[in-house]
């Protein structure tokens, strides 16, 4: 028990003499995504309401696509075989994450489909991240 306390105290003593240096990547990619939504299938009593709902749905779809690029997808698949024949085949795909700093580049209708283009500048994401968490690596350690 005394050894743990002594070692814990030493680690705090040495941490006081560590200097940190902020790391910045050399280049930052810009990610692009497009979301689509059918206008006529949206809920609403007028064409204008359906168009607004399609705008919202296409924007959310574009953000989902950005999240897939940043965080990847979780894929769950299951197939059962009976008598050497595929009996049941199911596939579930899920994406989860927080997308900050994305902006809508263009939003437009093409026939009965609404499209929204978004971009995510990873330089902006980096700046937001540094502003919140201040990532760092060890620059120099000095001992007594």
How does this model look, in words?
- With 144 residues, this protein is of the alpha+beta class.
- It has a single domain (10-72, 98-141), classed as Dodecin subunit-like (2-Layer Sandwich), CATH 3.30.1660.
- 35% of the residues lie in helices and 38% in strands.
- The chain is built from 3 helices and 7 strands.
- The strands form 3 sheets. The protein has a 3-stranded antiparallel β-sheet with strand order 2-6-5.
- The model has no long low-confidence stretch (mean pLDDT 84).
Q: Identify the strand order in the major beta sheet.
A: 2-6-5
Helix content: 25-40%
CATH class term: Alpha Beta
**How many distinct domains?**
1
What's the total count of β strands?
7
CATH architectural name: 2-Layer Sandwich
**H/E series:** HEEHEEEEHE
What's this model, at a glance?
By secondary structure, the chain is of the alpha+beta class. The chain has 3 helices and 7 strands.
Features:
7 strands, 3 helices, three-stranded antiparallel β-sheet, single chain, alpha+beta, 144 residues
Produce the secondary structure layout:
Elements: H1 2-15, E1 18-21, E2 30-38, H2 47-71, E3 74-82, E4 85-94, E5 103-110, E6 113-121, H3 122-133, E7 137-141
Antiparallel strand pairs: 1-7, 2-6, 3-4, 5-6
